[in-house]
Amino acid sequence: MDAEMYAQEAVRTPLHTAAALPLESNPPQQPHQLPFICTGDPNCTRSYEKKHELNRHMRKHSKPCACTVENCTARFADKKGLDRHKATHGIGRDEFDCPGCTETFTRADNLYRHRQKQHQFMG
């Protein structure tokens, strides 16, 4: 079949999408279909195929990593989140100075966003 005939056939052939199928063949997804079910929050409907996936998810509910800065009650699911938060206290990270003005940031991603918005930076 050449390209022109193929294009004509594609126009005549209806699309078969999930939306075009009858409703009974496309049932809504049921929560808790997998064997490892989250019990960390009554509103959470997550379930996982593997136990280690559930364990990783449960840390989001328990937030075992606590900030040790005085009067700070922030808690995080993992060390990466805690380290990122500590930078807001000026702990463990350098400051990032904007080369286009006098602004200073505790996180590189905030400097990057600032440069894009304020200095039309496209890097």
TrEMBL record:
* Annotated localization: Nucleus
Principal location class: nucleus
Q: Which InterPro entries match?
A: Zinc_finger_trans_reg, Znf_C2H2_sf, Znf_C2H2_type
GO biological process, alphabetically ordered: regulation of transcription by RNA polymerase II
**Which sequence ranges are marked TM in the entry?**
none
Domain spans labelled C2H2-type: 36-62, 96-119
Family matches, as Pfam families: zf-C2H2 (PF00096)
Q: Looking at the UniProt record for this protein, which Gene Ontology cellular component terms does it annotate, in alphabetical order?
A: nucleus
Keywords tagged on the record: Metal-binding, Nucleus, Transcription, Transcription regulation, Zinc, Zinc-finger
- Kindly provide the name given to this protein in its UniProt entry: C2H2-type domain-containing protein
